[in-house]
C-alpha cells in the first residue's frame, strides 16, 4: 500500500491530470497535453533574423534570413557547388504561415519552399518544392535558427 501511495503522489504532483465525467457519471482520468502540443502559428511567429544552412545533391548553402512578421523576407545566401563559390546572393521574397505551423515561402522567381516551424518560431526545417525534372532535382533541405 505504501508503494501505491508514493506512486500516486508522484503522478499527481508531476503530471497534469484532467478528470472527465464518463457517460455513466464515473470520472475518467487523462493526462493533459502540454501547451506546446497545441501551438498555433501565424506570420508573426516568424520574425527576426535566422542563420541558415542547406545541403543537396552537389551543393551546400549558408546564409542569413530576416522575416518581418508580416509575410516579407530578405536574405543573403552563399552557395558552394563543386569547384565554384556563388554569392552573396541577395534574396527578397514572401512567406505565409498556417495555424499548423507550416510555412510556405517564395524567394522570388518561383523558388518555392515548405518549412515546419519548431520551438515556437525559434527555428524551422525547410525543403525546396520547386517543380523540377527528376534528373535536375537537387533534393535540397536545410534548417534555420533564430539568432
Describe this structure in words.
By secondary structure, this protein is mostly beta strands. It folds into 2 domains: 31 residues, no CATH class; 104 residues, Quinohemoprotein amine dehydrogenase alpha subunit, domain 2 (Lipocalin). The chain has 1 helix and 10 strands; from the N terminus they run αββββββββββ. The chain has an 8-stranded antiparallel β-barrel. It starts with a helix and ends with a strand. The N terminus is likely disordered.
**Beta strand %:** over 45%
Report the helical percentage: under 10%
Tally the structural domains: 2
* Spatial sequence of strands, sheet with the most strands: 3-4-5-6-7-8-9-10
Q: How many distinct beta strands?
A: 10
In the predicted model, the low-confidence regions spanning at least 5 consecutive residues are 1-22, 28-36
Mean pLDDT, rounded to whole units? 80
* The first-level CATH class name of the largest domain: Mainly Beta
Structural class per helix/strand content?
A: mainly beta
Relevant CATH superfamily of the largest domain? Quinohemoprotein amine dehydrogenase alpha subunit, domain 2
* CATH architecture call of the largest domain: Beta Barrel
Number of helices in the DSSP assignment: 1
- CATH-defined fold name of the largest domain: Lipocalin
Largest sheet: 8 strands, antiparallel, barrel
**Termini distance?**
52 Å
Form type: globular
Amino acid at each position: 500500500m505504501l508503494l501505491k501511495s508514493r506512486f500516486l503522489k508522484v503522478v499527481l504532483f508531476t503530471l497534469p491530470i484532467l478528470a472527465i465525467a464518463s457517460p455513466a457519471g464515473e470520472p475518467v482520468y487523462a493526462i493533459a497535453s502540454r501547451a506546446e502540443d497545441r501551438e498555433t502559428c501565424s506570420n508573426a511567429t516568424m520574425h527576426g533574423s535566422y542563420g541558415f544552412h542547406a545541403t543537396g545533391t552537389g551543393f551546400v548553402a549558408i546564409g542569413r534570413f530576416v522575416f518581418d512578421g508580416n509575410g516579407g523576407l530578405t536574405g543573403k545566401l552563399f552557395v558552394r557547388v563543386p569547384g565554384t563559390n556563388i554569392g552573396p546572393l541577395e534574396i527578397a521574397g514572401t512567406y505565409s504561415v498556417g495555424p499548423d505551423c507550416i510555412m510556405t515561402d517564395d524567394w522570388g522567381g518561383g523558388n518555392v519552399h515548405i518549412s515546419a516551424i519548431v520551438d515556437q518560431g525559434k527555428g524551422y526545417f525547410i525543403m525546396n518544392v520547386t517543380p523540377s525534372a527528376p534528373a535536375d532535382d537537387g533534393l535540397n533541405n536545410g534548417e534555420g535558427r533564430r539568432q
